[in-house]
Amino acid sequence: MKLRVLGILGILIVVLVLVASTTILASASRELTQELQINRAAALNRLAQVAFDAGTDGGDATQLQAEMDRYSELYGEGILVRLQERTLRSGGLSEDRADVQDALARANLNLSDTALAPLQPFGTGSEVISRSFGSASQVLGAAVLEVNKDAARQKLRERWLAVGLAAAALAALLLIGAAQVTGWVLRPVNRLSAAVAELETTGRSGRLPAEGPPELRALSRSFTTMARSVSDSIEAQRQLIADTSHELRNPVGALRLRIDLLLLELKTSRERAAASAVVAELERVEEILDGVLKLAAAEHRALEDSAGAPGHLLFRGDQAAIDPFPILQEEAERVEPAARLAGASVRLGSPPWQSALIACNPDDLAQMVGELLNNAIKYAGRANISVSLRVDRDLVTIEVSDDGPGLSPAERAHASHRFWRSPKHRGISGNGLGMTIVEKLAVANGGRLLLGEAQPSGLAATLEFPRAPEVQGAASQRAGGPHV
């Protein structure tokens, strides 16, 4: 944005400087032309007066020729004076030149021509001016003066150079000033934009400094107040959900105890069946409460420790680097009994040959992998579940895939939404929070969750993390052992 504004201001500054420079240079050209014209016209008038005296005092033109020669020697300009009896010359000016002939013709008609064309800084050549002399009724002769413009052109070029340097300095100063003013105006706007992005990502924003124009200072103060209110509201809602879920566990636990005591008093199978249905619903409530508490904790981590917005990877330099393979091995071993009961199998791939360190909280990683494995066991049926760890340049990928029925692209797009469950899984117990928890924890640790289609069928859940640089002596040792 700053470059666009500076570009527009730069164009306006250049146009303004060019217009001012052109005006000044045109004025300088007129001034030098007028100065040269007045000077040469005065000299021509003096020569015409001497020529008139020579023509009326008996025809002695010695003084006139001497003045003409002295002038030509001093200024390097030719002079031609035509008297009735003869023509005097100095400085090599000849009546054979076309411009001299035209000047003499106009002078014979008693037309004086002492105007000079405007000076131009570049070019060569001279110009002639002329005037007649004589009485009011008779033209006695004409004087023609050759005007050499080279000296005046040199002065004009020097002024052009001075004006050009001044214009460049002025343009540079104006551009520097424009950059300073633009930065002063846009700095609060950029801070406000960053604060909006931070508020969107983390649910909170720091206090904006009151800088810039008065309107932007007022806007910064208003945004800071609004952001604080929004952050407090989000935190209050999150805390309310967590506290409510936690407090509900006590009455739910008491209710479960009473139902267990009631089951001991029930005699008929019909009564026990009804009580079992109540127990099943109670277990569902407990599962939802557990999921909400986990989600609240994951969202809190995502907001407190998130390295960036969802979908972006950023290395967490403040987090100790760990080797994820031992955690994968531990989680695969932990779910193996449940997988066997469900008719599924879990296979852990080989550890990569190169360093696969990531900056991730070990407990968070264990929870994420455990949730993905539990989902695969629960919803993939009698499937083969694979857990793998790969390293690709600066990226470490943890993949949990199965060859079950999988999810359609539309279902994968909604899988990480709160309480969303696929219609084909309605008959399986669950709360629809597992993928949401995994996504929030991944963001909190600078990673991301991607859901794709496994080949030839099934679901592939991928956790991607930036690869941490390996520090000498600090790399974790991978746990050995057979594959599960």
How is this fold's topology laid out?
Elements: H1 2-56, H2 62-75, E1 79-82, E2 87-90, H3 98-108, E3 126-134, E4 139-148, H4 150-202, H5 214-265, H6 269-305, E5 321-322, H7 325-341, E6 345-348, E7 358-359, H8 362-379, E8 384-392, E9 395-402, H9 409-414, H10 434-444, E10 448-453, E11 459-466
Parallel strand pairs: 6-8
Antiparallel strand pairs: 1-2, 1-4, 3-4, 5-7, 8-9, 9-11, 10-11
- Encode the helix/strand succession as letters: HHEEHEEHHHEHEEHEEHHEE
Q: Report the total helices.
A: 10
Averaged pLDDT: 81
- The CATH architecture classification of the largest domain is 2-Layer Sandwich
The figure for the number of domains is 3
Q: Stretches where pLDDT falls below 50 for ≥5 residues?
A: 471-484
Strand-residue fraction?
5-15%
The number of distinct β-strands equals 11
CATH homologous superfamily of the largest domain? PAS domain
Strand arrangement, major sheet: 6-8-9-11-10
From the spread of the alpha carbons, the general shape counts as rod-shaped
Under CATH at level 1, the class of the largest domain stands as Alpha Beta
Radius of gyration: 48 Å
From the N-terminal CA to the C-terminal CA, the straight-line distance is 56 Å
Biggest sheet descriptor: 5 strands, mixed
Estimated helix fraction: 55-70%
Q: Give me the CATH fold name of the largest domain.
A: Beta-Lactamase
Assign the structural class, choosing from mainly alpha, mainly beta, alpha/beta, alpha+beta, or little secondary structure. alpha+beta
Oligomerization state: single chain
